[in-house]
Amino acid sequence: MADSFGKKEREKKRRKRKQEKAERKKQKKLEGVKTSEFMYVDADGNLTETPPDPTVKREEIKLEDIAISTPKKTEEDELSNIRTGFLKFFNREKHFGFITEESTGIDYFVHGADMTGEIHENDNVIFELGSSPKGPAAIKVSLRPKAPPPPPEPKEEVTEAPESSSTETAEKKE
Question: Which CATH superfamily does the domain covering 81-143 fall into?
Fold first, then answer.
């Protein structure tokens, strides 16, 4: 049975690659380049050609000290989730709208069911960030309490003391 043209070509390429590999090996031998046969892993997990120093004491880690979990939420994390912004748009018929966060300018979706009280467009609001099927959304939305006006500064009646008293005491000492 005769060999096909494709089979002959594959065999020819295989022989050529084998010959090129042998030539590269011969060239490395002539140049004196020697690759290391063994590799070692150092304390940081990197591969090195030098063996580890047996006199160096390695730090032992107890299995109980390894914690694989998500960190627990603290009250500080809960407070940091509260954000401020203003109601940019709200469609009363479809009960949805968008809130623009003050600090970043990012718009978040809000559903009418997540709003407490009567809120109109451009009202300043406080909200928490939650998730919806399409991304982040504002939840627990309420009007931002207006800051109380600063207390009026008490007007102190200034009675002018005679200026001569300080000068008189200085003259008496002399």
Answer: Nucleic acid-binding proteins (2.40.50.140)
Tokens standing for residue 26:
């011969």
Structure tokens at 28: 């490395």
No. of H helices and E strands in the chain? Answer: 3, 7
Each domain of the chain, given as residue ranges in start order, spans 81-143
Q: Are 82 and 66 in contact (CB under 8 A)?
A: no
Which parts of 47-162 are beta strand (E)?
47-48, 82-91, 96-101, 107-111, 124-132, 135-143
pTM of the model: 0.42
Per residue in 58-84, pLDDT (tens digit) is 788 888 888 888 777 666 655 567 899
Q: Give buried/exposed letters for 78-100 (b at 16+ CB in 10 A, else e).
A: eeeeebebebeebeeeeebbbbb
